[in-house]
Amino acid sequence: MDLPTLLERAFRTTAEVAAAIEPAAWDGRSPCPRWSVRQVGSHMLGMVGLTTHVASGLTLDPAETQPERLAQLAYTDRLGADPAAAIRAVGDRSVAVFAEPGTLERLTEGKGGADTPGSVHALMCINEVLTHGWDLASGGGVAYEPDAEVVATAREFALELVGPEARALGMFGPAVEVGADADVLTAHLGHTGRRSPWPGIRAAA
Description:
about 55% helix, 2 strands, mainly alpha
């Protein structure tokens, strides 16, 4: 399956999660220790917006990509009165950019001056939406049933992306050990520093 389609599926599932979250739950705790459920959603949309912006070939102030600046994305509300609609809107824009001919092949300057293809940016967005979709579902008390191919794709990408450097920067927590018989989503969540099910989870609707 092509990357724009996988991204669309990831966004669709996460928007469905958002639509099912009760209004009061948005201000509650999430699996991301510093952030409420709403702040997780705002961070997710901010990250996808920045990544899509770069993939489209537009320039970005390098200061915007520093870890401390990225962490601040959570504190600007991007969800508004209708979080599901906000997620769908960002998803539609992002999918449209990655579906444009040449976007996945376009090289943009990444960290340390290395060229990064658009396909990697698309994978970053898929991983972001899938993983934080689980955060939203867990904090909001909503069942989470992502597409299996989306999960497998994010898992494979995260195994390369999430290492000691990313953890040292605070982008991901320490890996959580999972059993040998863990399903792919649980293994992915463990690698990104999440324990499934989240100990603080609300009763799923």
